[in-house]
Amino acid sequence: MAELLLVTRGSNEVIEEHSPENRRILIWDLHTHLTRHLRGLTAAEKAGHLLEVGARHGISRICTYMGLEWSRDPVPTDLVRQNDDILSVLEAYPDQVSGFVYLNPNHLEASLDEMRRCLRDGPMVGVKLWVATRCSEPALDPIVEYATELDVPIIQHTWMKTTGNLPGESTPADLARLASRHPSAKLICGHAGGNWEQAIPAVRNFENVFLGLGGFDPTAGVTELAVRELGAERVLFGSDAPGRSFASQIAKVTGADISASQRELILGENLRQLLEPAMTAKGISVE
What we know:
alpha/beta, TIM Barrel, eight-stranded parallel sheet, two-stranded antiparallel sheet, globular, disordered N terminus
């Protein structure tokens, strides 16, 4: 059975699979942003910095969304501006970056317009929903139906805060209710709900819900529990960089007590399969 190794290449350390062919492991990052912590002024410049750092960890493709300036309840002009930022990144790095369109169900017609512009007619391959409204609300149904028609995944921010969630902030239970209404949709539980010990059981019975590992502390046991309860095929590596480091988030997978084949699925193969229909339709290589 193949093993993952941390290999030094010049001044960089990358994750490789030790096998007779010394085949590189595919690592695709589900969850990144273009925040002020990154070098550069434009979205494309910041994405270049993110890709440079990610490459040191063996990451060959990142998914990014929400642009340079975020808002929790964006108006239609905000949505266009933020999605334009991501479109500029995709133009600069078509072979290394996948974009998800940022939407707000409180502005349904504008969101559907952005889906047509960025997904149907543009290069994006997924949907991002944040904290404008809880995802269990019926307002999401037209968005989910259209995403299902376009065969693209939706990553929904989820969290379970001890101090109480933000207004409109979804929990994994909200996502489970959405999944029950849309069993053919591809839904991703972002951040593993923060409190992953409660999140994983909440989505366990919904085969169309995947668990995103990015953006919370790399505590021991999360990946093992996810694999045991959901199966490795429903677990996705993501970092939430630059808010979290690539190294700490990859360690959730490479440090887990799981098989090498399960690591390979989580680090990249599962996400590649999720995005493959949309990428292939748009002529984007999945290799």
